[in-house]
Amino acid sequence: MTALISAATVYAALGTPAFAAQDAEQRLPKVVTDWARAWNGTDPQALGALFTADGTYTDQAVGVTFHGRPEIASWKARADDLIDNVHVTVQAAHRDGDRITVDAVYSGHLKDAPNPFAVPMTTLLDLNARCQIVSDHDHYSLNAVLAQSGLPADWTPPTN
Q1: How far apart, in whole angstroms, are the C-alpha atoms of residue 10 and residue 17?
Q2: For 106, which of 24, 92, 121, 141 could close a Cys bridge (C-beta 3.0–4.6 Å)?
Q3: How many CA atoms lie within 13 A of 84 on its CB side?
Q4: For 28-45, how does the pLDDT look when each residue is reduced to its tens digit (9 = 90+)?
Q5: CB–CB of 48/70 below 8 Å?
Q6: pLDDT surpasses 80 at 2
Q7: Rounded Cα–Cα distance for residues 11 and 2 (Å)
Q8: Any idea what the Cα angle at residue 57 is, between residues 128 and 26, rounded to 5°?
Q9: 99 near 86, Cβ under 8 Å?
Q10: How confident is the model at residue 11 (pLDDT cuts 50, 70, 90)?
Q11: What are phi and psi of 119, to 5 degrees?
């Protein structure tokens, strides 16, 4: 039996009503809505374009860092190749000067995995004065992604 996790289920499990996320989206900083739209879209260049030319993107769960727009766009393309329906649902964002903390749900379906996943994620975005992303640090549990997906803890993605 395939477990299908709806956004409402995730919101309920996290103690957040679905309508709160919809209301919060109306008050989010533009860079946050653009960032989520880029992750949820199909154009990898859209994500890279949000960063400064020498910006960095770090996926803490996987332990990788990408430098510059081309590498960041390449990481998004790799995610799209590996994960069907990759999606970021922003629940809240908190700004303190040039840093934005984003609380979100990261979801999708790893190709060839028996089940989809939906896990809490926190992202730290550091911005320059023009609201371009200087650095992005994504924090989520890779173990939770693999467990929900029905994959072993030592699973690694295909290299091609």
Answers
A1: 9
A2: 121
A3: 9
A4: 899 999 999 999 999 999
A5: yes
A6: no
A7: 20
A8: 60
A9: no
A10: very low
A11: -125, 150
